[in-house]
């Protein structure tokens, strides 16, 4: 029995049409494509991402087009700055100058103050922000500053504080300062962590 005779006696939509089909060919003559549900879902996801790509790329890189967009994409860092791969800081973190700033801020804010639990919560944050803003004026380029302030009521007790961090010992550094009055003990730790 030939294929030509079988197709003339049966209809294309009948039950015998699928039994007479040649494997790999559809009734239209092209290759038969069967796709798993996971692959269909993956292709729909790819199409949705491609549809959104133009809107997102116009928002992130408004002036770059086509090949420019592809060449600029790997050079943009997480903070939106261009990466420079600068391994050494231009201005190193100077611990002595930072210690002087810590002492000045402590004297300005704590010299004649009585301990008050509610007021000292705000005062600790205020001291940390003031120390950090004064250190930023020293222009330690590419350093992230972490300022840790502790204010404790003094009642003839001991005070023990410890901090441990993981950092690059060649580029990162820290400075600390302490201040005591009859009513208050204050400590401040400032970390200068270099951002490559």
Write the layout of secondary structure elements.
Layout (H helix, E strand, L loop, with lengths): L2 H7 L5 H5 L17 H24 L6 H6 L22 H16 L6 H20 L6 E11 L19 E8 L3 E11 L2
Antiparallel strand pairs: 1-3, 2-3
Helix pairs in contact: 5-6
What tags apply to this protein structure?
alpha+beta, Ribosomal protein S3 C-terminal domain, 2 domains, 3-stranded antiparallel beta sheet, 6 helices, elongated, disordered N terminus
Question: What is the gyration radius calculated from CA atoms?
Answer: 35 Å
What is the ordering of alpha helices and beta strands?
Answer: HHHHHHEEE
Sheet with the most strands, sense and barrel status: 3 strands, antiparallel
Q: Tell me the structural class.
A: alpha+beta
**Residue-averaged pLDDT:** 75
Q: Name the shape in a single word.
A: elongated
Q: Tell me the CATH superfamily of the largest domain.
A: Tctex-1
The CATH class of the largest domain, by name, is Alpha Beta
Provide the low-confidence segments as ranges: 1-21, 59-74
Query: How many separate structural domains?
Result: 2
Spatial separation of the terminal alpha carbons: 77 Å
Please count the helical segments: 6
Question: Multimeric state of these chains?
Answer: single chain
Percent of residues in β-strands? 15-25%
Strand order of the largest sheet: 1-3-2
Helix content: 25-40%
Report the CATH topology name of the largest domain: Ribosomal protein S3 C-terminal domain
Number of E-type strands: 3
